[in-house]
Design a protein that fits this description.
By secondary structure, the protein is mostly helical. It has one domain: Substrate Binding Domain Of Dnak, Chain:A, Domain 2 (Up-down Bundle), CATH 1.20.1270.360. It contains four helices and no strands. The longest helix is centred in the N-terminal third of the chain and has 42 residues, at about 1-45. The protein is elongated, with a radius of gyration of 17 Å. It starts with a helix and ends with a helix.
């Protein structure tokens, strides 16, 4: 019986481990998008175009929401993760389009990482 319990608990532990990683990626992405947003206001110019600022803020908010839904083990977390993956991908592309700015590169990198893990979580079957 103990072998059976170990066998059945391993996939759940693996899923929860992936969820923990995704939660952390969402929280990290939330943080860097908020920091990048503040940096954009300081830089001005193309960095304060409304579409760019809205995308950064949208990304931060959906990342925060997705992390919270996963923490609560909401039945809807796969849906928020799916949207989060899309928004993060769009934000990454937009940040990359800003040029060689170091903050934009870091933001794009984190957005891509979050997009990947959220995409995986959106496929999770309850």
């Amino acid at each position: 019986m103990e072998l059976q319990n170990q066998a059945t608990s391993t996939p759940k532990q693996h899923i929860h481990s992936k969820m923990d990683i995704c939660i952390q990626n969402c929280l990290d992405c939330f943080r860097i998008c908020e920091q990048t947003l503040a940096e954009c206001f300081k830089k001005g110019g193309k960095h304060v175009e409304s579409s760019h600022l809205i995308l950064l803020k949208s990304c931060a908010e959906i990342c925060h929401t997705s992390a919270k839904f996963m923490m609560m083990q909401s039945q809807f977390h796969t849906k928020t993760c799916g949207v989060c993956a899309e928004v993060c991908q769009a934000c990454a592309e937009d940040c990359e389009s800003m040029g060689d700015d170091e903050m934009m590169k870091k933001c794009a990198e984190m957005c891509r990482k979050c997009s990947q893990s959220c995409s995986e979580m959106s496929q999770w079957d309850h």
